[in-house]
Design goal:
Elements: E1 24-27, H1 31-42, E2 47-51, H2 59-62, E3 66-67, H3 77-90, E4 101-102, E5 105-109, H4 112-124, E6 133-135, H5 137-143, E7 153-157, E8 161-162, H6 165-179, E9 182-185, E10 189-195, E11 198-204, E12 207-210, E13 213-216, H7 222-227, E14 236-245, E15 255-257, E16 262-265, E17 271-274, E18 279-283, H8 285-289, H9 291-300, E19 305-309, H10 329-332, H11 342-355, E20 364-374, E21 381-384, E22 391-395, H12 401-416
Parallel strand pairs: 1-2, 1-13, 2-9, 5-15, 13-22, 18-19
Antiparallel strand pairs: 3-8, 4-8, 5-7, 6-7, 10-11, 11-12, 14-17, 14-18, 14-20, 15-16, 16-17, 21-22
Helix pairs in contact: 1-6, 1-12, 3-12
């Protein structure tokens, strides 16, 4: 697994006192929560982040490590462009440590239909003046240093970046602490309280923190958290498997995508390999509430998504209500560590080697899985929760969170403190899912 192996601090350990008050409380220690805390601290805001497990333990460290503008939904592109700037600015002190590099993203196409879809995206993205280039078969082969023309074409964005996820979020957390933010691990937020319709406290397993605003960046846990206060958001979780390989020859310095297998060169000389849309969707109670909204996604990916009856996490562990003086699902499962699909991982490796013979005889060095928080249109939710003034949700990153995380962190930090956000957030409003 690509995460830290140490166990999170236990609640009540006394290692760090719980502040009684803060301007803003951030719930969740993933990429969104950590960068929100970093942004707020650097702007002189008193901020406390509480994390039930440890910083960067879940999907923020289990993704592919791509920081890309290429292929983004046009509605998300302004946010991603700003996020790329944020990566370069806030991560500058730790750039070498987290292996942050501008190495480019390339999507290759195996069929004319795939290539046409890629070219159509380039046309849609023209207003944003990206540096994306359309490559024909010969140009694609030349870029990859090959003497064949296996691919019908490609699109290539030189300014895209990558970083090592397992290193990045803990390093950014350290920067947040240095800037004055208080980050408390091993402390679950049980819920929120309000006064006159406005959030007033975050109640944790170790006590309450009075605050003016709350940022919920709970990833796959956000839906469960909000359901306990009677708010139902269209967000479900899919289980995604990825792997890392032993060291091998470099075939591309950055992200190299294709539907059957996508690869990213790692700092250790191996590759992280994944497969787009190859996920498992667990049918649990919340799935039926939002099933109609997800039908278009399920239909378009019917051949790549596995459906099964789910008994884990979002079934037994994540279902039901609790009082704020009771043990919660967040305390029962400190770190969500789903089992990977090892057969899928083996197939992804063999497929990657067939697509790119230059990889040689690399082998699997590790396999892991993560839970991706997905909305029906695969765009984030960034909005104030109705009836809970001051409670801002930043969730539903839909597999894009590592790349857009710093941009989302800044935007929600601005919103929580009454500042005007750097981008228009109307595409991410919760009301877009209303009938």
């Amino acid at each position: 697994m690509p995460t830290r192996s140490d166990t999170p601090p236990q609640s009540g350990s006394g290692q760090q006192p719980l502040p009684k008050t803060a301007d803003v409380v951030v719930i969740g220690g993933g990429i969104v929560g950590v960068t929100a805390a970093l942004y707020l601290a650097r702007h002189g805001v008193s901020v406390v982040l509480v994390e039930k497990g440890y910083i960067g333990a879940e999907q923020s460290s289990r993704n592919w490590g791509w920081i890309r503008k290429q292929g983004r939904d046009p509605a998300e592109l302004p946010l991603m462009i700003e996020s790329a700037r944020e990566w370069n600015q806030i991560a500058a002190p730790v750039a070498r440590e987290i292996r942050l590099g501008t190495v480019g993203t390339t999507y290759v196409s195996l069929t004319e239909a795939e290539f046409a879809e890629r070219c159509d995206w380039v046309e849609q993205a023209k207003p944003f003046q990206l540096d994306t280039k359309i490559l024909g078969p010969r140009e694609t082969a030349a870029l990859l240093g090959r003497d064949d023309q296996k691919f019908t074409g490609a699109i290539h964005t030189p300014s895209d970046m990558t970083a090592e996820p397992a290193l990045a979020v803990p390093a950014l957390g350290r920067l947040a602490r240095e800037a004055g933010a208080t980050l408390i691990e091993g402390c679950a937020a049980r819920g929120v309280e309000r006064s006159a319709g406005r959030v007033s406290h975050v109640v944790t397993e170790r006590g309450a923190i009075a605050c003016q605003s709350v940022i919920l960046g709970g990833g796959a846990w956000s839906r469960t958290f909000l359901e306990n206060i009677g708010i139902f958001i269209p967000q479900l979780a899919i289980r995604s498997t990825a792997l890392r390989t032993t060291p091998g020859p470099q075939i591309h310095p950055g992200g190299l995508g294709a539907p059957p297998a996508s690869v990213r060169r790692r700092s250790d000389g191996g590759y992280t390999i994944g497969r787009t849309n190859a996920s498992r969707f667990d049918l649990v109670p919340a799935a039926f509430r939002h099933f109609a909204a997800y039908l278009p996604v399920l239909k378009s990916r019917w051949n790549t998504i596995q459906l099964r009856a789910g008994r884990e996490f979002f079934g037994d562990l994540g279902h039901g209500r609790w009082q704020l003086d009771q043990i919660t699902p967040f305390e029962r499962t400190r770190v969500l560590d789903p089992a990977p699909n090892r057969a899928l991982a083996r197939d992804m490796l063999e497929t990657a080697k067939r697509l790119h013979p230059g990889l040689g005889n690399i082998q699997i060095a590790g396999v892991w899985a993560g839970m991706i928080d997905v909305t029906p249109d695969e765009l984030p939710i960034i909005d104030e929760i109705p009836g809970w003034a001051g409670l801002w949700a930043a969730t539903g990153m839909s597999g894009h969170g590592f790349g857009i995380g710093p941009g989302v962190g800044r935007v929600v930090g601005e919103l929580a403190t009454g500042r005007r956000p750097i981008v228009d957030i109307s595409p991410f409003a919760l009301s877009r899912f209303s009938p």
